Amino acid sequence: MSRGVDWPVVRAIFYKDVLASRRSKSVYLPILLVPLALLVVLPALLAFFARYAQTPDLSSLLDRFPGSLSRELAKMPPNRQLIELVLGYLAAPLFLVVPMMVSTALAADALAGEKERRTLESLLHLPIQMKELFLAKIGFAFIPSLVVSWVGFLLYAITVNLIAWPIMGRIFVPNMRWGVLIVVVAPAVAAVGLGVMVRVSARANSSQEANQLGGAVIVPLILASVGQTSTLLLLAPQWILLSGIVIWLVAAILIHGGMKRFTRDRVASRL
Q: Each residue's pLDDT tens digit in the chain (271 positions)?
């Protein structure tokens, strides 16, 4: 009969992985630099473009938006419309792409990286439950993606509000839609990517191989996220919340299935 989860053991493995990742530039540099580029530098460039570019006629585009939102945007001057569209809606996919990228990169290192460093065998010989090892690996990949996503959004909001303030004259990001997207949907998307990559990482012999194998699934997920997020942000907050709940259910199924297959025999057979 299996005992309950020993959380001090989970934390110990989690901190071990954090320390190992801090010593690997190939792990932590992309996690820091890519979100910085996508969530701060790129939005800053978009904000400057929207602020100083010649404002196009957006009336035909606004006609495609939901009625209440279209009417709200139609009341704004053209330069405000452009900023609201570019930074308030079109930039939204970045906040699903980044947490998924971070979680999958760390998940690839969580198990395949252990094999590559030849340290996984010693973990399997420790008197710990496999679910404790699994939870530690999940936490190692998920928690940093959450931190990067939320800190990145804070920096994004500060950056675009400062640059757009002379035109907008108010703080326009975040709003209720953004709040639901960042707090509910973005972590759910990261968890889906994590559920996929944990399975792939357990089969691969190196983090590079795990990334290559997982790319066949993760890249379509990222493209789907990019294609749907701007549309999702046009919906009412309750519909965004419902979408997040559905994605969380999918993530829970994937992660639970991965945990059931995460046994000593299965992992040891792939060393």
A: 456 788 888 888 888 888 877 777 777 777 888 888 888 898 888 888 877 777 676 676 766 666 666 777 777 787 788 888 888 877 888 888 888 888 888 887 777 777 777 777 777 777 888 888 888 888 988 998 999 999 999 999 999 999 889 888 888 888 888 899 999 998 998 898 888 887 777 676 666 666 666 666 666 766 666 666 667 777 788 988 998 999 899 999 988 888 888 777 777 666 6
- Whether the bond into 174 is cis, omega within 30 of 0: yes
Contacts of 142 (CB under 8 A, 6+ apart): 103, 187, 190, 191, 194
CA within 13 Å, CB half, 199: 19
Residue linked to tokens 């996508």: 38
Task: For residue 209, give both structure tokens.
Answer: 């191989």
268's tokens: 């040891």
SS3 122: helix
Here the contacts of 260-269 (C-beta below 8 Å, separation 24 or greater) are 261/199, 261/202, 262/130, 262/131, 262/133, 262/134, 262/198, 262/202, 263/130, 264/124, 264/130, 266/202, 267/111, 267/120, 267/124, 267/130, 267/202, 268/121, 268/124
> How far apart are alpha carbons 212 and 237 in whole angstroms?
36
Rg (CA), the chain: 21
Q: Where are the chain's structural domains?
A: 7-268
Max Cα–Cα distance, the chain, nearest Å: 69
Other beta carbons within 10 angstroms of residue 9's beta carbon come to 17
